[in-house]
Specification:
47% of the residues lie in helices and 18% in strands. It has a six-stranded mixed beta barrel with strand order 3-4-9-6-8-7.
Length: 464
């Protein structure tokens, strides 16, 4: 039997029992719609998480710390590591300015900046407020933390400007927006290196009375009280400096280069006295920005080769991918149950068609139709119902996803939160849903097609 004749017969048979076949197709469409709606929710949540993390700049960031300070990243020390032998035991390399410049010249590195955070006192209208100041790089403007901020970002890397976190701004005024344009006084402790005394053994020079040739400085420093007038240019809802390499709980944000110029005393200054290089900055941690997530691994390996410990968000994404994979699998399983139930409707429809069309099947076989031709005819009818149900189900599932997005955005708008997309239907999901629908329909047609092919033409012609 030719394919064209097969298609005409299948189409005619489906039109003869239009209501029953339409209800069966509708059942398939509902099953596909539930599958698409659930999977689109999982895909949408995964895309939302990736978008937020990518927009924050964390995917292209590497956080660097000395080996002795890696616990600062919140990871416990590894107890399963073998202690190094006395022959290979070397002091950990300092994370100083030399190391920073070396990382800056690595391929694919766009920026290297330290974590600058220090406790201080802010004076506003002659009232003191204790808080923490954090330095923020200019590249942070493109991060998602500053989306929707009130006011403006820093005008230049060294501008005497500040952005206040909303909670701290409410401590200063009951109307935080009115603070924009006003000035505050930053009182801080400036560290000033001490000159090397005659006869003092300088750790950098290695001999008595020999200071560092370029500076002649002692390992120690003095602390001098200073003040800096800052103009408030913006109010931000979140804490952009929080996290690795950021400002932690910093609620007063200033340009990073300005923070470096202030030379404010920090907690890691004591380590600089004990083991640092006089006249050179000694950092607790550094953040290394690269051109994109694809360059993270190579740069991370290069930094590890320098003798430092590293951490990047990509190190933890394997677990995140596993969670989403399991989540999508569960949604797919529950969504497929409705499609499996719909396949029972296909079996019922085709079995009833066999009983109604036994005489027709007998005539076909009497005219020379082979068993495989009868089998193909019923497979074609099942495949057409699966195809039409799959296309209708994808459209219905997309509509359900749009409805979920609308309801979620209404809910978020009432709570002054930004709109988002919870559901996403990519092209591969459309193709997979239609293919799965046709495959399930064909599988459901195996029994009716085999039963129809086994009919004896003589008995079929006698049937009334």
């Amino acid at each position: 039997m030719k394919i064209r004749d097969l298609g005409e017969l299948a189409g005619r048979n489906l039109r003869e029992a239009l209501l029953r076949n339409s209800l069966t197709t509708l059942g398939i469409a509902v099953g596909v719609a539930s599958l698409v709606a659930m999977l689109s929710l999982g895909v949408g949540l995964q895309e939302l998480a990736n978008q937020r993390l990518s927009h924050s700049g964390l995917f292209d960031a590497i956080f660097v710390a000395p080996h002795s300070n890696f616990s600062a990243f919140g990871r416990p020390a590894r107890s399963n590591q073998q202690p190094p032998s006395s022959e290979s035991l070397e002091p950990p390399r300092l994370l100083d300015e030399d190391a920073r410049q070396e990382m800056q010249h690595l391929p694919s590195v766009t920026e290297v900046y330290p974590e600058i955070r220090f406790p201080t006192e802010i004076r506003f209208k002659d009232n003191p407020y204790s808080t923490v100041v954090a330095g923020v790089p200019m590249s942070a403007h493109s991060g998602g933390a500053f989306d929707g901020m009130k006011g403006a970002f820093f005008s230049s890397p060294t501008a005497d400007e500040t952005i206040l976190q909303i909670e701290f701004a409410r401590e200063l005024s009951t109307q935080p927006d009115s603070l924009i344009g006003q000035e505050i006084v930053l009182a801080y402790a400036e560290r000033q290196p001490l000159p090397a005394e005659p006869g003092e053994k300088n750790p950098a020079a290695g001999g008595p009375g020999q200071g560092a040739p370029e500076a002649g400085l002692s390992p120690g420093f003095s602390v001098v009280p200073r003040e800096e007038n800052l103009r408030i240019v913006g109010i931000v809802e979140t804490q952009p400096a929080a996290g690795f390499g950021g400002g932690g709980t910093g609620r007063v944000l200033i340009p990073l280069q300005l923070a470096e110029k202030l030379r404010a005393a920090q907690t890691n200054d004591f380590r600089e006295i004990l083991g640092g290089t006089p006249g050179k900055a000694n950092y607790q941690s550094l953040t290394v920005r690269v051109t994109g997530p694809s360059a993270v691994k190579d740069v991370e390996d290069a930094i590890k080769g320098m003798g430092f410990s590293t951490f990047s968000l990509l190190d933890a994404t394997d677990n995140l991918r596993l969670v989403f994979a399991v989540f999508d699998l569960l949604l797919g399983i529950f969504g497929s149950l409705a499609l499996v139930v719909a396949s029972l409707g296909i079996i019922n429809t085709l079995v009833m068609a066999i009983l109604e069309r036994r005489r027709e099947i007998g005539v076909l076989k009497a005219l020379g139709a082979a068993d495989r031709d009868v089998r193909r005819l019923f497979f074609a009818e099942a495949g057409v119902m699966g195809l039409l149900g799959g296309i209708s189900g994808v459209a219905l599932g997309w509509a359900i996803g749009r409805a979920m997005n609308f309801g979620a955005n209404v809910y978020l708008h009432r709570r002054a939160l930004p709109a988002t997309n919870l559901s996403s239907v990519p092209w591969w999901l459309v193709a997979a849903a239609i293919s799965f629908s046709v495959a399930v329909s064909l599988a459901a047609g195996i029994y009716p097609a085999s039963r129809a092919a086994r009919l004896d033409p003589v008995e079929a012609l006698r049937y009334e």
